Amino acid sequence: MEKRVLTITLVMLTVTLPLLSQRKFTPRTPEQLASLRNLAASCRKPLAGSNRGTQLDDAYNMGYCIGYVRATMAFIGSVKVPDQVVCFPQNVIVQDVQRVIVKYADDHPEKLQEPDWQQVFVALFTAYPCKQPGDTR
Fold it and tell me: What is the arithmetic mean of pLDDT over 101-107?
């Protein structure tokens, strides 16, 4: 049984590795990824809801966006300070935050060249502000 699994694995690798090496993949540098324009572009594909025909570059960008959003949510959720300014609702999910980022980028084209981390914070503060005592929002 183990010999059969090993044989099948070797055959699959022999067939797929040459195909993967022929695919065009252009890794992004941190500078290329660090603008709101590029983050929003990376977040559009997963929101479209279809992975059919996904190219390797698209998969990389989708993973970048989802990882960025999850890390941002985890960071904001774990930092509790007296003057907290971003408060996620209990039921917020990654796709909700992706939509906020894409909408903010669409609504603020003048900010597209700005660093993504700055603009994401502004977008999240706008979408998910913490209620302060006496706040009737």
Answer: 96
| Residue 132, domain member (yes or no) | no
Give the number of other CB atoms < 10 A from CB of residue 97.
25
22 vs 16, 36, 42, 57, CA distance in Å?
10, 31, 23, 13
In a domain, 137, yes or no: no
Residues linked to residue 93 through DSSP beta bridges, in sequence order: none
Q: Is 74 helix (H, G, I), strand (E, B) or coil?
A: helix
The C-alpha angle 10, 12, 15, rounded to 5 degrees, equals 110
- 54-90 burial, b at 16+ Cβ within 10 Å, e below that, comes to eeeeeebbbebbbebbeebbeebeeeeeeeeebebee
More confident residue, 50 or 12: 50
pTM flag (> 0.85): no
